[in-house]
Amino acid sequence: MYNFDEILDRKENNTKKWNREYIQKRFKDAKEPYYPLFIADMDYRLPEEISKGFIDIVSRGDFGYFDIKDEFKSDIKHWYKVKQGLDVNLDDIVPIVGALTTMNVVLGEVLNYNDKVLVFTPVYGPFKDITLNNNLELIREPLEIKENRYFINFKRLNKKINDENIKCILLCNPHNPSGRIWNTEELKRILEIAKKNNVLVISDEVHGDLALYNNSFSSIYKLKEKFDNYIVIGSPNKTFNIASLNVGYALISNVNLKDKVCEGMMKRKIHLNILGAEFSSVCYKNGYLWVKELIEKIEKNIDLVNKYLRHIDCSIMIPDAGYLIWVKFNKIDDSLKFSIDLAKKTGVLLECGNRFIDDYKGFLRINVATNSSILEEAMKKILEFYNEI
Ligand SMILES: Cc1ncc(COP(=O)(O)O)c(C=O)c1O
């Protein structure tokens, strides 16, 4: 059994989640000690069987130009087979740098000036940045809430794609901030509407490895026999908390699209670094058991948060996947003011709804990937603060 309560001491490492300077920039006058439950980053230490692999790479001491080893792809292929029962073609795997950089390149390469990109709101804020950065127009399609769960309004989606002449859907699956997994039927409907209208679907699946409560996560790649109007963006970054290594992969079965993406990376001289490329393999080879226990720890921490929030006037979206909980605090409208005031009075740092583009009124996101005592302490403080407003 791994001990997820012995967390890393990250305060002096310039990590965004724990660094004082960054926290003061984001949360003015936040009280110390901090209880950082905001940025999507985990506090857990990787086990020795994984971190040892990193030391082995470093101890070779060779950091010159390199070619990516074949095992980069074969380890991803094996991971998909074990985790999702999916057969990935080795030729469909494209090594990429971080998810955002790659989606930025894809939008720049595949779309044309002023083309329209549709996102389901609320959603991960940088989707807006990468769209606008590429001189594209962002079209919002609000998700609907039924019994604390998001749903896509397919009738409206169909009409909007037609009426607005949408060229691309940027899908987040599992959905950040709510952790909703879009099921195979929903994915099929999205791809069908997209195919009919000549629309590309980019499916950001970086949270996909952390399906909770025996939910199964299925990549949109599962539908590759019927469709090829998609690009999957995947990564070990969230699963193993290695975002700073800037490594990921795309799954692309359409050869033209794949060539465009590879060309876009080459043109811009974007290359994977050796540490990210090789450590990705180390994680995927050795991480099965650790990820299984990580998921159990996240489930326990979500239960803990739920136990406290049950007593206050709020609506909790229990995630299907990932370590983030999206909560609507019914007593508040202005979540930014709430997050700043909460930080100032208690040191608890939550991700404010306004970082998720639209349709976030009263919402904040709680990251549970820390040790249980920090989380419990933070929950007590949130409750006390909320009950007083
Ligand atoms: C949905 C989603 N996509 C992409 C990213 C960023 O990934 P990367 O650091 O690989 O660019 C995040 C980070 O939180 C995320 O939540």
UniProtKB/TrEMBL annotation:
Cofactors that this protein relies on: pyridoxal 5'-phosphate
* GO MF term list: transaminase activity
The UniProt entry, under Pfam families, shows: Aminotran_1_2
This chain belongs to the protein called: cysteine-S-conjugate beta-lyase
The UniProt entry, under PANTHER family, shows: PROTEIN MALY
**Residues in coiled coil:** none
Top-level division of the source organism's lineage? Bacteria
Q: Supply the CDD domains for this chain.
A: AAT_like
Note whether Lyase occurs among the keywords. Answer: yes
Q: Which family does it belong to?
A: Belongs to the class-II pyridoxal-phosphate-dependent aminotransferase family. MalY/PatB cystathionine beta-lyase subfamily.
- UniProt key word Lyase: yes
